[in-house]
Design goal:
The chain has 233 residues and is α/β, with parallel strands linked by helices. The chain contains 7 helices and 10 strands. The chain has one domain (2-223): 3-Layer(aba) Sandwich (Rossmann fold). The chain has helices at 46-53, 76-86, 102-112, 119-129, 144-156, 174-190, 202-205, and strands at residues 2-13, 20-31, 35-39, 61-66, 69-70, 87-90, 162-166, 195-199, 210-215, 218-223. The strands form 2 sheets. It has a 6-stranded mixed β-sheet with strand order 6-7-8-3-9-10, with helices on both faces.
Length: 233
């Protein structure tokens, strides 16, 4: 089943002769349970594309569908609600609320929605993320890897249709990066969580089911790797 589809998505900054095409006519789709990586150098447009996939930044033209909902036909208020419920966002710099502890940060999206957090699901997430002994800690009492684990838990608390990760290991050392990648794969494989990851690191991207390569705002190549790390298409 198709979870995400873009149709000729374009983002232009500036006007007339000063126009810059950050993203230029990008079309692709993602199936339920798929792990897709989007790679590209700095300035290739991959983070701008991620913001449009997540309902954070409206495209200049084109369409983004999540579970067949044309998200940019929604009003700003309805889009904010849709984003909170259906899109899990993970950023390079964690974006945790500094005055909230681990449990409060993780359950914040649910409570913002006026709901009571699912205690069993929360416990399952905490155990999978290895945060059992950190629930009362503030972000500044955690390592970078632990903070990113909290951010992953927060992104998953509403059981989103799609998880979007923008350079999720970019602020971590190699050991913590490997641990975060393993956790993302666990949620993708065990929980069938659809995952799109932005990265500049091709070695990380090879762990995905499919790799989309961006250059100058365009998708230029689609590749797949076997589990042994060999390119198959």
């Amino acid at each position: 089943m198709e979870i995400l589809r873009t149709e000729q998505v374009t983002k232009i900054y500036g006007s007339s002769e000063n126009q810059v095409y950050a993203v230029n006519g990008v079309s692709f789709s993602v199936e339920q349970g798929e792990f897709v990586a989007i790679v590209g150098s700095s300035g290739s447009g991959k983070s701008t594309l991620m913001h449009m996939l997540g309902g954070v930044d409206r495209p200049t033209s084109g369409k983004v569908f999540i579970e067949n909902e044309d998200i940019y036909q929604l009003s700003d208020d309805k889009l904010a609600i849709f984003r909170r419920r259906q899109v899990g966002l993970i950023y390079q710099f964690f974006n945790l609320v500094p005055v909230l502890n681990v449990e409060e940060n993780m359950t914040l999206p649910v409570e913002l929605d006026g709901k009571v957090p699912d205690k069993e699901f929360f416990k399952e997430l905490v155990n999978t993320l290895g945060l059992e002994n950190r629930l009362r800690h503030l972000p500044n009492e955690l390592s970078g890897g632990q903070q990113q684990r909290v951010a992953i838990g927060r992104a998953l608390m509403n059981r989103p249709a799609i998880l979007l990760a923008d350079e999720p290991t970019g602020n971590l050392d190699s050991k913590a990066s490997a641990e975060i990648m393993e956790l993302l794969k666990v949620f993708n494989q065990k929980y069938k969580q659809t995952l799109v990851m932005i990265t500049h690191d091709l070695e990380l991207a090879k762990q995905a089911d499919r790799v989309l390569n961006m250059e100058d705002g365009r998708l230029v190549e689609i590749r797949r790797w076997s589990k042994e790390g060999k390119q198959v298409i």
